[in-house]
Task: inverse folding
């Protein structure tokens, strides 16, 4: 379980402070896939970085805290200050572009032993890694290959292999399939779902694609302008979206076999209609496990 | 009827490495597409990475020379044997829009310099004429020249910058615009602004588009014709609705089945422990 307590994350640039995440309070239960949607600049990547514990200037937590309910090697609860020691062990990260994330000059096999904290018996780790990659549908030669010799889909499988090798409690996947075409995307997403069911851990998936979210997630978190506007069970969020921004996200993309006009609301947002989606920071539970930021009130006109 | 786009046995082979130990990759393998129409159309090209979509676009844009075969755009041979038009005439007929607008424009120059340059050097306009053409092109994509003048790429969002790329492509009055993955770098909620802009330019301004994408849903939404590519070959080609509603090739069906939709799930989601 991860609890965010009134979390505010800011970037201090020159004399200006930008609040990228502005007062987020929510609880992410164990053992589920949570999808995070929202446009660029809505704060979703900043929130993921903060949960991962990768907080570097000019980014800082200016208010609130994150509670993780797992313990470090010393038996003490993990905090934002100590989470770094858990990287790859109980928390791992699948970055957006695997092309730039694997070390280009060492073979795939060595990437499994290339970080501190792995078993000192390298041979045993390599053997386990080879078996594990086989389970992920990669041929054994991959262990001896350099990243550039693999296709995008294979590299993404290797990244998923690295991120899940130690069966972490939490995996953060930032747009894990954006650069892949639809056929490979489906394979990778199916793999991720199978691994999650097997390990029973929590995965946070950031994606622009609402179709991807519907296919893989148990819960949905919709962000807008640094705030959570809607958070709830996927079935409920897609079946009965409450917030206008969520509705817009779900309705904005066309589907095959549907000839109706699309994107009308999206254009309005582009033309400065954004204010309509600015959310109040208080989440209200409208249904069991379905929270919505209080709907924006029309501005009171002063007489 | 006008031949909007026609490729005749178009082939492109890339060679890698030396003459002896080199490897050849066939990026286009006998591509034959014919689109004849009196009205401007949107032709979509879909397929996975490495299927040859971008090579087809590059060939039509004369950024690659075909190994054999030729391509015709609006009754003019533009690539391969007998390709006659001068560079300026060609750029007045076919214009590109690229995937990443942040890479298409330099960070160190104001973006309107590119629009001005296209007006002067490709369309051969004088100062006043160029000024008016740039303003008109920006207006047709829903932007005001006053808001664009003198600004750099970092001052725009991806969607705005892509609309500026469209405006730039419109200045020489081209008949066909080749758009290679024009929306893949743009937020999902803003993609439809660009897609609807293409639709409007087709219907109101008489432009044809070659829309290269791996997003089948938007391809279905705007295209009149669709070509499905796999391993350098066009495996299925025809009117978009007919192909997508009733795919006859196994690869087209695989592509359609792989789209994550919000209608039915690939596999049931088990209830989570929380």
Result:
């Amino acid at each position: 379980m991860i609890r965010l307590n009134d979390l505010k994350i800011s970037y201090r640039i020159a004399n200006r402070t930008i609040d990228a995440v502005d007062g987020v309070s929510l609880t992410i239960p164990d053992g589920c896939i949570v999808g995070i949607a929202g446009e660029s600049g809505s704060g979703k990547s900043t929130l993921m970085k903060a949960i991962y514990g990768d907080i570097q200037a000019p980014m800082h937590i200016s208010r609130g805290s994150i509670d993780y309910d797992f313990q470090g090697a010393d038996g003490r609860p993990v905090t934002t200050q100590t989470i770094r020691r858990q990287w790859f062990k109980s928390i791992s990260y699948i970055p957006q572009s695997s092309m730039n994330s694997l070390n280009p000059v060492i073979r795939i096999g060595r990437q499994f032993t290339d970080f501190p904290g792995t078993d000192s018996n390298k041979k045993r780790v390599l053997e386990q890694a080879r078996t594990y990659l086989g389970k992920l549908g990669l041929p054994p030669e991959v262990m001896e290959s350099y990243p550039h010799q693999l296709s995008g889909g294979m590299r993404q499988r290797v990244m998923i292999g690295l991120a899940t090798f130690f069966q972490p409690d939490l995996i953060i996947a930032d747009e894990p399939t954006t650069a892949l075409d639809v056929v490979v995307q489906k394979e990778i997403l199916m793999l991720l779902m199978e691994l999650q069911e097997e390990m029973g851990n929590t995965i946070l998936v950031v994606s622009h694609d609402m179709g991807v979210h519907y296919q893989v997630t148990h819960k949905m978190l919709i962000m807008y302008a640094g705030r959570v506007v809607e958070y709830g069970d996927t079935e409920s969020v897609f079946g009965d979206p409450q917030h206008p921004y969520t509705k817009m996200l779900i309705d904005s993309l066309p589907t095959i076999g549907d000839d109706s006009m699309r994107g009308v609301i999206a254009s309005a947002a582009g033309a400065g209609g954004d204010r309509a989606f600015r959310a109040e920071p208080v989440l209200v539970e409208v249904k069991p496990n379905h929270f919505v930021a209080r709907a924006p009130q029309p501005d009171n006109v002063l007489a | 009827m006008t031949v909007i786009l026609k490729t005749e046995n178009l082939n492109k082979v890339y060679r890698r490495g030396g003459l002896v130990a080199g490897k050849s990759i066939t990026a286009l393998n006998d591509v034959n597409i014919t689109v004849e129409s009196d009205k401007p159309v949107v032709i979509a090209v879909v397929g996975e990475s490495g299927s040859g979509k971008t090579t087809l676009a590059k060939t039509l844009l004369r950024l690659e020379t075909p190994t054999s075969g030729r391509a015709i755009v609006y009754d003019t041979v533009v690539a391969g044997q007998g390709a006659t038009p001068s560079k300026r005439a060609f750029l007045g007929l076919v214009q590109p829009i690229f995937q990443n607008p942040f890479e298409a424009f330099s960070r160190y120059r104001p973006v309107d310099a590119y629009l001005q340059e296209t007006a002067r050097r490709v369309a051969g306009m004088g100062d006043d004429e160029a000024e008016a053409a740039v303003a008109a092109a920006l207006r047709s994509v829903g932007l005001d020249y006053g808001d664009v003048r003198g600004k750099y790429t970092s001052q725009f969002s991806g969607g705005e910058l892509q609309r500026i790329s469209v405006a730039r492509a419109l200045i020489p009055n081209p008949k066909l615009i080749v758009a290679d993955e024009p929306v893949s770098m743009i937020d999902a909620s803003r993609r439809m602004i660009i897609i609807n802009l293409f639709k409007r330019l087709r219907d109101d301004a008489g432009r044809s588009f070659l829309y290269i994408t791996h997003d089948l849903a938007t391809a279905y939404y705007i295209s009149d014709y669709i070509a499905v590519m796999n391993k350098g070959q066009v495996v299925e080609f025809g009117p978009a609705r007919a192909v997508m509603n009733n795919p006859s090739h196994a690869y087209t069906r695989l592509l359609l089945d792989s789209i994550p939709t919000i209608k039915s799930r690939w596999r049931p989601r088990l209830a989570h422990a929380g």
Q: What stands out?
A: Chain A is about 30% helix and 25% strand. Residues 182-199 of chain A form the longest helix (18 residues).
